[in-house]
Structures are given as structure tokens and as C-alpha cells.
Amino acid sequence: MTINLILITILGLFILLISANYLIENIVSLAKKINISKFAIASCTIAFGTTMPELTTSLKSVLADPPHSGIAVGNLIGSNIANILLIMGVSAMIFPVQISSDKLINLELKASVVILLFPATIFFFNLNSNISFFISLLMLLFFIWFFSERMRLEKKNINEKTNVKQSIFFLLSKILFCVIGLIFGASFLIDGSVQIAQYYKISERVIGLSLIAIGTSLPELTTAIMASIKRSHGIALGTVLGANMYNILVLLSIVEIIQPTSIVKNIQSIDIFVLGVSSLFLFLFIKDKKITALEGFILLFIYILYVYSIY
Predict the structure, then answer these.
(1) CA atoms within 13 A on the CB side of 102
(2) Is the pLDDT assigned to residue 180 strictly greater than 60?
């Protein structure tokens, strides 16, 4: 039985790698075709696709009978922390991550503040279900504004003609197919890993803290690593920032709307603190328009310390 589980886990990893590889190629082609940056497409399209594991995990948890809102909230907060510290850390260590727009940096700063304040305000002020419901709806509206503003800032007028023969529909179809591959690959990898952990009698708490949060971030991690290897500037950062927006402003809002007070009951001060620290470091690093290998190592080191502390 263990051999079968290991094979399923390896198969999941293989599907992830292949899907991410072709996803990057098609994203670059689409960016050239419609004359907007790879960052914009990554933050809007890839990020949505790679957050599907978080979406399915969170909805399954919160709609279960009885609901397991702790898994949903922990998964989303933990995934955001992993996205910044683990994914950006590893990506920058492979190849420096670059960002080109000052206006985009300012927009990301505002987004990071809102992403942090949303759960922090509800948690520290112990807000009741009516107020948290209103705030959650407000976060969904902010996400819509942020989405449109990011696209507006990232549109470019490119004078030189790009030779991309494939149609936009065909490119989008291939991107969708690759995203589905990422989701299935992550599903196989997570299921196999969880079953292996259970086979060796590792506690559910350890599984939740390590495999669920990191596991559902595997599509983002794989995409970002492949983007760094291919030196496709903007895709790694765009994927992470876009995924974080979806996770907190959309998915966490939905969880709070379905199960009020989920945030208050299922996070601790250290989670908010680390989410704030990770957001601060990310902003300080991208302010120089580049995340270096050393800065990537710092992010990764903070993540290791965080995981160690919660154990």
C-alpha cells in the first residue's frame, strides 16, 4: 500500500511540473499577443487557477457537517504566509525576482495593508458576526476594485509587432488545460502525502499545519519556480500577489460569510504577526524593484522559524 501511495505522490509532482512548464510558455505568448505584461496575466489568470486547491479545501471544510472552519481559515492564512516566505524566498534564490512599475508597487502596498487588516481587525477586536459579515462583503468589493486597477496599471502600448500566430482563444484554452493539470497534480500530491502521513500515524495537527497549507500552495510554488528557472520576470511575483488577494479578500471573506466568527475562533496572534512581518518584508524588498537571492534566503529562513515555532 505504501508503494502505491508513493507512486501517486510522485505522479502528482510530475503532473505539477509538466503543467507549470507549459503554463509559463503559454502565458508569455498570451502576454505578447494582447500587449499586457506577464505580471498582469499571472496575477489575474494563473493566480486564480493556482488557488483552486485552497478554494476546494476551504469550501469542503466549511460546508461539511459538522463544519471544519479551522481547516479553512488555517489553510488560507497559512497559504498566504507560505506564498510570501516560502515561494518568493525559493524563487528569488533561484533567480532574482524583478518588478518594474512604481505605481504597481504602491498598489501592492495598499493591498498588503488591507490583506493584513482584514483578519487582524476581526480577530483583535473580537467583532461579532454582523460586523464581520459587513467587513467580508467590503473585502469582496475591494478585490473587484483592486483587480480592475491592477489591469489598468499594467496595460502597455507596445509598438513593435509581436509574431504570435496562435489565436487568443487557443492560448486561453491551453492555459486552462495547464491550470487543470496543476489542480489535479496538487490533488494527487496532497492526497498521497496525507495518506502516507496517516499510514505512519502522524497527528492530524501536524498534517494540517504542514501538508495542507504547503500542499495547497504547490501550484503557486511550482509555477513560480519554473518561472524563475525560465527567467520570466513578473510571473513568480504576479502569481504570489494575485493568489494572496484571492485567498484573503475572496476565499476568507466567503468562509466568514458562510460561517461567521470563523476568523476569531481559528487563528492565533502569532499567525497575524507572521502574516504582517511577511507582508512588510515583501514590500521592503520589492520597493527596490528586485528581490535578491539574499533577500529570498531571509524570507525562507523566517518561514522555517515560523513552522518551527508552531510545532
Answers:
(1) 0
(2) yes
